[in-house]
């Protein structure tokens, strides 16, 4: 039987399937259910910058109204002020209870976009026992006067700020919209990221044609979305000094296997667990174990990255050649 043990953020995990940030990781009952189903680790819902610094913020609802439907939020981006007053304390309570009740690693999560005193809250999460911290950067670069370099530097300063506040391992969750993702990944690792979580799924607003309001439109991920992550993990494998976590579109055993072959250290599930419940982890894990065992892999280390860009006979398959090949392969019915 294949040894599915993997390493992530300085932690030894029994296998590569992690329950990522979602409502399912926001209560002790569901956290225990995830552990019972076999999750290798859990990432708590994101605690938002605005929850920590609400007293000094003038809240602008605009496009953000309705963000409580974001699968990763802990009470929404901009909850009512009363919720803000207790938000960070409630978050610490969940973290403390999770560390008391669970035997698997518990990764805390901070979500923000700016430097400031709120980043020191990472120390509180560390002090309350978080095994690691995931910094979830949700930054929409909407300022037409901001250059790409300025936006990237903002990411780096934020990572450096959080890194300086904690000693526990730090993962940084980012979106895919960089001109040069591999270069940015290297810079993030140099700024202090021990791991990169690829990719943040930016939820898009919609327009209600009846009311003409900007409204939230939460659509859970599909397995097809995994291909973007697969490509960039395959390209980054062996080229950056950080571990790689795959998230978005991870729904089944086939997806997990493909991402390991591409070079992922762990895979993270949210939408599939919201759709099928915590028990889905056991089903996926059985399928992953069967696939590697049937092909006589001794360990994940043997398989990891074996189909990355650096390892395949035709590295261009992950670049422009694949684009042309895909178009030429289409045959209308």
List keywords for this structure.
333 residues, TIM Barrel, single chain, globular, alpha/beta, 12 helices, 14% strand
Describe the structure.
With about 325 residues, the protein is α/β, with parallel strands linked by helices. The protein has a single domain, classed as Aldolase class I (TIM Barrel, Alpha-Beta Barrel). Helices cover about 40% and strands about 15% of the residues. The protein has helices at about 30-35, 50, 80-100, 120-125, 150-165, 180-190, 225-235, 255-260, 270-275, 280-295, 300-305, 320-330; strands at about 5-10, 10-15, 15-20, 40-45, 45-50, 105-110, 130-135, 170-175, 195-200, 205, 215, 245, 265-270. The strands form three sheets. Strands 3, 4, 5, 6, 7, 8, 9, 12 and 13 form a nine-stranded parallel sheet that branches. Strands 1-2 form a two-stranded antiparallel sheet. The chain has a two-stranded antiparallel ribbon with strand order 10-11. The longest helix is centred in the N-terminal third of the chain and has 21 residues, at about 80-100. The chain starts with 5 loop residues before the first strand and ends with a helix.
């Amino acid at each position: 039987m294949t040894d599915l043990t993997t390493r992530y953020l300085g932690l030894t995990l029994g296998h590569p399937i992690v329950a990522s940030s979602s409502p399912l990781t926001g209560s002790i009952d569901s956290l225990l259910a995830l552990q019972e189903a076999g999750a290798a680790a859990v990432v708590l819902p994101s605690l938002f910058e605005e929850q920590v610094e609400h007293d000094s913020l003038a809240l602008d609802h605009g496009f953000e109204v309705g963000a409580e439907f974001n699968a990763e939020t802990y009470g929404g981006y901009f909850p009512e002020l009363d919720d803000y007053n207790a938000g960070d304390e409630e978050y610490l309570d969940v973290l403390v209870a999770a560390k008391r009740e669970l035997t698997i690693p518990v990764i805390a999560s901070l979500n923000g976009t700016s430097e400031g005193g709120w980043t020191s809250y990472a120390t509180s999460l560390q002090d309350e026992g978080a095994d690691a911290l995931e910094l979830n950067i949700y930054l929409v670069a909407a300022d037409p006067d901001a250059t790409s370099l300025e936006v990237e530097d903002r990411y780096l300063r934020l990572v450096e700020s959080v890194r300086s506040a904690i000693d526990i391992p730090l993962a940084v969750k980012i979106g895919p919209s960089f001109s040069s993702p591999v270069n940015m990944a290297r810079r993030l690792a140099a700024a202090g990221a021990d791991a990169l979580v690829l990719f943040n799924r930016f939820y898009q607003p919609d327009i209600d044609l009846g009311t003409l309001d900007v409204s939230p439109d939460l659509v859970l991920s599909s397995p097809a979305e995994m291909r973007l992550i697969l490509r960039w993990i395959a390209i980054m494998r062996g080229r950056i000094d950080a571990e790689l976590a795959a998230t978005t579109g991870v729904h089944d055993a086939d997806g997990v296997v493909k991402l390991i072959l591409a070079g992922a250290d762990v895979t993270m599930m949210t939408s599939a667990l919201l759709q099928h419940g915590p028990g889905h982890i056991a089903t996926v894990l059985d399928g992953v174990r069967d696939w590697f065992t049937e092909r006589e892999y001794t360990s994940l280390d043997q398989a990891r990255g074996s189909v990355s860009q650096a390892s395949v006979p035709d590295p261009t398959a992950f670049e422009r050649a694949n684009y042309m090949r895909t178009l030429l392969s289409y045959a209308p019915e």
